[in-house]
Structure formats: structure tokens, C-alpha cells
Fold:
Amino acid sequence: MNSAPMRNHLDSMQENMLQQLEEWMELYGSDVIRFAYSYLHDYHQSEDIAQEVFLKALSAMDNFRNESSPRTWLLAITANSCRDFLRSAKVRHETTQDVELLQRQSSHEVESETVARLMKDELWKTIKKIPIKYREVLVLYYQRELSSQQIADILAISEPSVRTRLHRARILLKEELVKEGVWDGTEY
Structure:
């Protein structure tokens, strides 16, 4: 059997896969980075995860069956990669302030921005304390503004499970906020 036609066919398949991956990187790269950031709250680590996601997608491209959109598939890979990273690294994010930005702003703007940052930091610290299966639905629903069905597709769970996790996540978040003294428990 002549191996030249087989080699040409394999080269052509590989070229097509690379072109597809480049197209996906162009279309969904920023979505993957933002989604990873919503888990990790670290831009540089989010970029690293995004690179890892696209490498995983390239190696698993034969397994992509078009049952979901490429975006959904890539975000599912991203969610799994972020979960793996958080489990292995047990990362704790420390927020730093941009000194140059603060120097350019008036003291009132600095004060307002500092208060907003502190509140956001406290909220993220609290969110990070709840189990990841609840944290991820909060992030996907509130920060990424995805529907219950989209979240179900990404996490490979049923839509009722998403709604249940979201309900439990809200309860856990409220309990943590009260316990930490960030919130007094009154409804808004």
C-alpha cells in the first residue's frame, strides 16, 4: 500500500483541524479568557488556562460531535480546567491596587473606587468559600449572564439541577455573608 496518499490525507486533516482551531480562537478566545477569569479572578492565570483549553480542544477535536455549539464545548472544557486548577493549586487571590490609576484620580474618586473594590473583594472572598459546584452556577448565571439551559449544557447537568444549585448557592452565599459580617441578613 502506498503511504503517500495516506500521508497527504492525514496532512490535509491536520491542516483542517488547525484552521478550525484558529477560527475558534478568533471567535471564542476572549469568551474563554473571561470565563476562566470569572472562576480564577486572575487575568494571567486565565490566559494560561485559555491556552490549555485550546490545546485540549485540538487534541480532542475528533470527539467534538456538534451536539452543542463550539462555544459551549470550549466553555465546558474551560470550566473543567478551572476546577482542576483550583483543586490542585488551592489558589487564593489577593487583589492589588493599580497605584498609577489611583494617583491620577481625585481623592473622592479614590475613596469611592476603594470602597467598591473592597466590597467586590469581600464578595469574591465569600463566594470562594462556598463549594465549587455552587460557586460555578453563581458565576455563570450572574457574571456571565447565561441561561439555566446554557449552564446545564456547559456543566453537563440537567436544567432542574442548575436551578437547584443556584437556589442552594444563594442560600450558602447569604449565610457566609452574614457569618463574615459583610451583610446583616436583611432583604433589599
